[in-house]
Automatic annotation (TrEMBL), chain A:
<dbReference type="GO" id="GO:0005524">
    <property type="term" value="F:ATP binding"/>
</dbReference>
<feature type="domain" description="ArsA/GET3 Anion-transporting ATPase-like">
    <location>
        <begin position="17"/>
        <end position="290"/>
    </location>
</feature>
<keyword id="KW-0067">ATP-binding</keyword>
<dbReference type="InterPro" id="IPR016300">
    <property type="entry name" value="ATPase_ArsA/GET3"/>
</dbReference>
<keyword id="KW-0547">Nucleotide-binding</keyword>
<dbReference type="InterPro" id="IPR027417">
    <property type="entry name" value="P-loop_NTPase"/>
</dbReference>
<dbReference type="GO" id="GO:0016887">
    <property type="term" value="F:ATP hydrolysis activity"/>
</dbReference>
<dbReference type="Pfam" id="PF02374">
    <property type="entry name" value="ArsA_ATPase"/>
</dbReference>
<protein>
    <submittedName>
        <fullName>Arsenite efflux ATP-binding protein ArsA</fullName>
    </submittedName>
</protein>
UniProtKB/TrEMBL annotation, chain B:
<feature type="domain" description="ArsA/GET3 Anion-transporting ATPase-like">
    <location>
        <begin position="20"/>
        <end position="178"/>
    </location>
</feature>
<dbReference type="InterPro" id="IPR016300">
    <property type="entry name" value="ATPase_ArsA/GET3"/>
</dbReference>
<dbReference type="GO" id="GO:0005524">
    <property type="term" value="F:ATP binding"/>
</dbReference>
<dbReference type="GO" id="GO:0016887">
    <property type="term" value="F:ATP hydrolysis activity"/>
</dbReference>
<dbReference type="InterPro" id="IPR027417">
    <property type="entry name" value="P-loop_NTPase"/>
</dbReference>
<dbReference type="Pfam" id="PF02374">
    <property type="entry name" value="ArsA_ATPase"/>
</dbReference>
<dbReference type="InterPro" id="IPR025723">
    <property type="entry name" value="ArsA/GET3_ATPase-like"/>
</dbReference>
<protein>
    <submittedName>
        <fullName>Anion-transporting ArsA/GET3 family ATPase</fullName>
    </submittedName>
</protein>
């Protein structure tokens, strides 16, 4: 069974493609794929911005992202004049959160919030914050209308699904009935509220303050009181971004490596996007090892290698070449089997295969080479 | 093949550890290595617990079993008599455990759960989740049966990836901002003592590639900085070098004598088209480039000066049988 081929250039050239989201499990080359796609789009005339989450240092340098600016900077290189433009930025989670607070709360209230220890924990340590802020930043970039294509890298999570779940998790945690109750004493002047919610709440506060200590509850309550007025705005924005993600102008590209774990995660992600009517464009399989000497079978190569090794005259490198080829055929077959398994389960998902580069990529030439491979050139 | 400049294998110091934390960059095969390590440590009649956190159910997938509950259950027999138990640590269940153990609040668990209190508490204090995880592991490491025999000879944790592992283990930092006093603080302090002691070793799984190696070196520095003990570096999926070392250098620059090679292939009975020979040459150049990159990666890893263990890439991929094969490789390199 063969899967349809992912038409990368068609996707990039389509003026209706406004947002490309690269997602997948950790270590599969999401950031590099996002950067390569953005570069190619810029060279093909799009006004492109790429939002990277945690790029490798040298890749960041190649894109001119030496400092965390939290705002896009145009990538300008000597002797490089793309038909469009390429802008790039690295997400600064804390600053994005701070900016959100400053925008939505009054000055005085914002300062209170920023100094609250509970806010500091939520804005830096909560497991969904990075995902939430990536979405927020995407929403901001889209709102400016300065770029006609936004390519988004997603946070390095253990599971590919975290990206979709985390914002929801954070906002429902902040919006929970319990947090509302914590904020409530201020509104209800503390009178009657405990009676109203009954013994459950008493038990709850007792348990929480027993475990965590009373100070934490006080901080949380102060945080919620300050946060409460902004919450509507937060949720509205999150919903707007969610809507943007499910609109036809968005294309999700699931990134994987030809390995069982990564492909299994990719499968989950594909099912999930499908279940939520999110626009899936296809699967990128990075670092494949296609056979280059296609006409020579592994068995023939091994037999010839053995016969050469029996003679002393031959240079060891020739038999080595044949063994390298046999290894390669085996590896290619294994990758092929894994991909065939994916395709059987998800027959309509288009696939782009990106043959492995000899070295890690951290310059524009390398990104361009990956872009060529992505597009099947 | 040992890494140049590193001490080899499993040192006496590591062998004494009872909590083996296995971390690594995403995609390096950390879960597989943790499972193989549990099998190797259990070899010869020992009992080892293989634990995971964060709800990915990687262990169940690896062993092809149903998703693990929050309960220790036997998952595999180790070579030469020995048993591996598996545990999936769930934050909510661990919190209820904790409440029950310390406050007899277990009865209230259902009410708390219904109110969303547990989700709330772990959200309120993200460090709490980690303390609950590590606290449960501490309990497993210390547990003894009625005869005073240790329940587990060792506990192996499939830990969060390198980027998060120090934060995960160094729980005081996360909690001290939030809980300055109280029992959870006391609990955390005990966990801190365990993870910083000789009883704990943090192993780092890597591949011979630039990014995983850099993350490994960063993690070693971070572990040192937090006064945690790095154990061994486990180099996973090592492929055999096929080219003689002296050939690699001029191969990477593409200086192969294609005519001579074609003649030699003809002598071996292979009449190949020019196109196929070009393909063979390209494959060989890629292989040589990879060897060169791996050599650089090895040199960089040697800077960490940690004991190193290598695991070969398995042609058939990883299934349950392969775990035993990897366990044998670990044992052969001194894992005990």
């Amino acid at each position: 069974m063969t899967s349809p081929k992912l038409q990368v250039d068609k996707l990039l050239d389509d003026q209706d493609t406004k947002v490309i989201v690269c997602c997948g499990s950790g270590g599969v080359g999401k950031t590099t794929s996002a950067a390569a796609l953005a570069l190619r789009a810029a060279e093909r005339g799009r006004q492109t911005v790429v939002l990277t989450i945690d790029p490798a240092r040298r890749l960041a340098q190649a894109l001119g992202l030496k400092e965390l600016g939290n705002h896009p900077r145009q990538v300008q290189l000597p002797d490089w004049e793309p038909a469009g433009e390429l802008w790039a930025m690295m997400l600064d989670m804390r600053r994005t959160f701070d900016d959100m607070v400053l925008t939505h709360a009054g000055k005085e209230r914002a300062e209170q919030l920023l100094a609250n220890p509970f806010y500091q924990t939520i804005s830096t340590s909560f497991s969904g914050t990075q995902e939430y802020m990536a979405m927020e930043k995407l929403g901001q970039l889209a709102a400016t209308g300065e770029w006609d294509l936004i390519v988004v890298d997603t946070p390095p999570s253990r599971s590919a699904l975290d990206f979709l779940d985390a914002p929801q998790r954070l906002s429902s945690a902040l919006d929970s009935r319990l947090l509302r109750m914590l904020a409530a004493p201020a509104r209800a002047s503390g009178r009657g509220i405990r009676k109203l919610v009954g013994t459950g709440f008493t038990l709850f506060t007792k348990a929480i303050s027993t475990i965590l200590g009373g100070q934490l509850l006080t901080d949380a309550s102060a945080f919620m009181q300050a946060f409460d007025s902004m919450f509507g705005g937060f949720r509205e924005r999150a919903e707007k971004t969610a809507k943007l993600l499910s609109s036809p102008g968005t294309a999700f590209l699931v990134v994987a490596a030809p390995e069982p774990d990564a492909l299994r995660e990719a499968g989950y992600f594909v099912d999930r996007l499908d279940g939520e009517d999110m626009p899936l464009a296809g699967l990128i399989v990075n670092r494949t090892h296609p056979v280059l000497a296609k006409k020579l079978t592994a068995n023939k190569a091994l037999a010839a290698a053995e016969s050469l090794e029996r003679e002393d005259s031959a240079a060891p490198s020739t038999s080595a070449m044949l063994r390298i080829h046999a290894d390669r055929v085996e590896q290619a077959n294994r990758e092929q089997r894994l991909l065939a398994r994916f395709t059987r389960a998800h027959p309509i998902v288009s696939i782009a295969r990106v043959p492995a580069m000899a070295r890690d990529v951290h310059d524009v030439a390398g990104l361009r080479a990956i872009g060529d491979r992505l597009a099947g050139d | 093949m040992p890494l140049a400049g590193s001490s080899v294998g499993w040192t006496e110091e590591i062998a004494r550890a009872r909590l083996h934390v296995v971390s690594g960059k995403g995609g390096t095969g950390k879960t597989t290595v943790a499972a193989a390590m549990a099998l190797a440590l259990a070899r010869g009649g020992k009992r080892v617990l293989l634990a995971e956190v964060e709800g990915r159910q990687g262990i169940a997938q690896l062993f092809g079993t149903e998703p693990l509950p929050y309960a220790e259950q036997r998952i595999a027999a180790a070579p030469e008599g020995g048993e591996v138990y598996a545990l999936h640590v769930d934050a909510e269940a661990a919190l209820l455990d904790f409440l029950d153990m310390f406050y007899n609040l277990g009865f209230a668990g259902r009410t708390l759960r219904r109110m969303g209190a547990i989700e709330f508490a772990t959200t309120l204090a993200p460090g709490l989740r980690d303390v609950l995880f590590t606290g449960k592991l501490m309990e497993c490491v210390r547990r003894v049966d009625q005869n005073g025999r240790r329940t587990y000879d060792a506990v192996v944790l499939d830990a969060p990836p390198t980027g998060r592992v120090v934060q995960f283990l160094d729980v005081t930092k996360a909690l001290s901002d939030l809980a300055k006093t109280g029992p959870i603080r006391g609990h955390a302090d005990k966990v801190v003592k365990l993870v910083h002691s000789q009883d704990t070793a943090v192993h780092l799984v890597t591949l011979l590639e630039e990014l995983p190696v850099r993350e490994t070196l960063d993690a070693v520095a971070e572990l040192d900085g937090a006064d945690l003990r790095p154990g061994a570096v486990i180099v996973n999926r090592v492929r055999p070098p096929r080219l003689p070392a002296d050939v690699v250098a001029h191969t990477t620059t593409g200086e192969l004598d294609s005519e001579r090679i074609r003649v030699e292939l003809g002598e071996a009975g292979l009449e190949l088209s020019a196109e196929t020979v070009t393909g063979l040459l390209a494959e060989t150049v890629e292989h040589a480039n990879r060897i060169t990159a791996e050599h650089t990666a090895r040199e960089q890893l040697a800077e960490a000066d940690l004991p190193a263990i290598e695991l070969a890439e398995l042609a058939e991929g990883v299934d349950v049988e392969a775990l035993y094969e990897l366990a044998d490789l670990l044992t052969a390199q001194g894992v005990r």
